[in-house]
């Protein structure tokens, strides 16, 4: 006999049709909750209200204002409306993916006696530092924010040990670890196409890929810096960028002015096409210093493509020996790329795939449900297991 079905209401800001990792994680976890027999309901902001049933469960969109300079991000700003919706939904569990503007919902859940979870998709001090706040000030500000967050929610879920550290630093005792996952069927080395690689490399010998939102905290300019450094060292490399954001125009202008072989694809909506691109590349760059997990990088690994990531982020913990980490400067990234390329192609691609296979969505869903104290309502059959992979 399984446990009774639970209504797990999930709240998330900063999600758009062109979002990357967070949108993917919400979708896959929602599907996993449904496969385990629960009733997931996702509430996100948008330009108009909507309510629909989807493969990840019910998705409710509430009108929310667009934040200037963020490239389309919106927030659930109408507290009264959201509070009424929560009361009407009567959740058994609350899961929140925003520690700032939605922190009040943890306090609501406490008063309503609803167990709640806040998912730490980024570190507070890491984000503050990427916006230019001095490290000491960022740490103090983050500690104040995190103390209030840890008090407001029943549990804090961190996807990596790196993300967990800022809560350990303040002595929080309600932190649990739950890694995210990757679609190991869609993202696979067998997608690698020499024809596609040749098209994007356009005569160059090394193809680099950046799959990222083009915003300040992701530091996409580091990828262009590394490309310039590599070419100055005689490495004939080209870069293809999959992603959009407020920095795109400036990056395109810079690539033209410096005559760098960079192709900007914008947001790649088709996940199959994105996987083909990730498999075709020789190295994936992940320069964001505040990443707490890095789903795009994990997808690249699953496709057999090694990753060079920021040593300041959580990605060295995820990538391990399936790539290399670098300090946040162009020379270090260029050296790391060359180190990866020095390994035999078959060896580095095999290592990348082997690392990714440690992160399935089935494992991630189990970890998140454990954080919710939500056991599967019945044994998950073969079809459900395939869905969760």
Characterise the protein shown here.
The two termini are 24 Å apart. By secondary structure, this protein is an alpha/beta fold. The protein has 2 domains: 7-181 and 360-388, Glycogen Phosphorylase B (Rossmann fold, 3-Layer(aba) Sandwich), CATH 3.40.50; 189-356, 3-Layer(aba) Sandwich (Rossmann fold), CATH 3.40.50.2000. The strands form 2 sheets. It has an 8-stranded mixed sheet with strand order 3-4-2-1-5-6-7-8, sandwiched between helices. The protein has a 6-stranded parallel sheet with strand order 11-10-9-12-13-14, sandwiched between helices. The chain is built from 16 helices and 14 strands.
Shape: globular
The amount of helix comes to 40-55%
As for the number of domains, it is 2
CATH architecture of the largest domain: 3-Layer(aba) Sandwich
Radius of gyration: 21 Å
CATH class of the largest domain: Alpha Beta
- Total E-strand runs: 14
The name CATH uses for the topology of the largest domain is: Rossmann fold
Quaternary organisation: single chain
Adjacency order of strands in the biggest sheet: 3-4-2-1-5-6-7-8
> Major sheet: size, sense and barrel closure?
8 strands, mixed
Unreliably modeled segments:
381-388
Instruction: Give the strand content.
Output: 15-25%
Order of helices and strands: EHEEEHEHEHHEHEHEHEHEHEHEHEHHHH
CATH homology-level superfamily of the largest domain: Glycogen Phosphorylase B
How far apart the termini lie comes to: 24 Å
Number of helices: 16
Return the average pLDDT rounded to an integer.
92
Going by helix content, strand content and strand pairing, the class is: alpha/beta
